[in-house]
Write a structure and sequence with these properties.
By secondary structure, the protein is an all-alpha fold. Helices cover 63% and strands 0% of the residues. The chain starts with 13 loop residues before the first helix and ends with a helix.
């Protein structure tokens, strides 16, 4: 069944877009992947599949540009439970991510945000090992997006003095680097907010096959009829399913993080909990929208935080599971 709107021909078949496009497929997947994560077989299979991905990615790095870097978002949780060869491959992921973030004509600055995923896991779970600090970190990360980013969606003054604009001004004043300080996020918030208000779509969004008009991108690339997604995941989810979907999506992540950090009895689920908080925070700023291997891996691991079996296992028992 094709969309009858001729202006939308650029987006192709409606059902292929819903089930095949990475920016819409994830709308349907989180419950399924979290269910897989509730079983020991599912998580052990993910560990083995990740190892195969690492091996293939290492060889493909010769022909492709940085195929491993995005695994920084989750692979660190396996580090304490695998052998030396596996650990060496995990280290390669971080080397590649750092290279991608710092080198080349157009380095991917988003990896300056993603790399701390693993740094925070190591810091709060394996180095500090202080329950109070870890819990205060969790509470702070849960609240921070509400303070910094939500005001951009409800601003009535055209988005002046937003968090990003203030941060960009600070960087510019102190470094003189206008490229580093360029504002790449606040206008996305403002455009989505204006579109949802104009179409009265805040509650339920515009559906899985939705798009929105962007004045910024229309001025920079004539001939486009709209954008099927935003570089900010939470904005894409607002566009697709409105506030209702965003609450369910973020609620799933936050509940998993809460269970892992406040109730988990092993470092494996606690690592996933810290990682989940970073994913939640990054959903307000980083381009992790999609349905690739690392997205599937994230939600499978999140399933561990919702399983009483995983939450109550000891680290020794988890090592035995991963030896199978």
């Amino acid at each position: 069944m094709l969309n009858d709107d001729k202006a939308m021909n650029a987006f192709g078949n409606k059902w292929l877009t819903l089930f095949g496009n990475e920016y819409t497929a994830l709308l349907l997947m989180p419950p399924f992947f979290t269910y897989i994560g509730s079983s020991q077989f599912g998580v052990n299979t993910l560990k083995n599949a990740t190892c195969l991905f690492l091996i293939c990615g290492t060889f493909l790095s010769v022909a492709m540009k940085y195929p491993l870097a995005h695994l920084t978002t989750f692979v660190i949780v396996f580090y304490p439970y695998v052998g030396k060869k596996y650990k060496f491959l995990i280290v390669l992921v971080f080397v590649e991510a750092i290279i991608k973030a710092t080198m080349g004509d157009n380095p991917t600055r988003m990896f300056f945000i993603i790399i701390p995923f693993s740094i925070f896991v190591i810091l709060f779970v394996f180095i500090l090992e202080n329950e109070k600090i870890k819990k205060w970190f969790a509470i702070t990360v849960m609240i921070a997006p509400i303070l910094f980013f939500v005001p951009m969606l409800i601003s009535k003054n055209g988005g002046e003095n937003t968090f990003f604009q203030e941060a960009n001004s600070y960087v510019m004043d102190n470094t003189g680097n206008d490229e580093l300080a360029s504002d790449t996020r606040s206008f996305l918030y403002l455009e989505i907010a204006e579109y949802l208000t104009q179409t009265d779509s805040w509650i339920l969004g515009k559906g899985a096959f939705s798009h929105y008009y962007s004045l910024f991108f229309d001025q920079n690339a004539k001939g486009k009829f709209g954008r099927i997604s935003s570089e900010v995941p939470v904005l894409t989810f607002l566009l697709r399913g409105g506030v209702i979907y965003v609450l369910f999506y973020l609620g799933l992540i936050l509940y998993g993080a809460y269970c892992a950090i406040f109730k988990g009895k092993n470092k494996f689920v606690q690592s996933i909990g810290v990682m989940a908080l970073c994913w939640y925070f990054n959903s307000f700023i980083g381009d992790i929208t999609g349905c690739r291997f690392y997205h599937m891996a994230f939600f499978i691991l999140l399933g561990c935080t919702l399983s009483t079996r995983w939450l109550n296992m000891s680290d020794k028992e988890i090592k035995q599971v991963f030896k199978r």
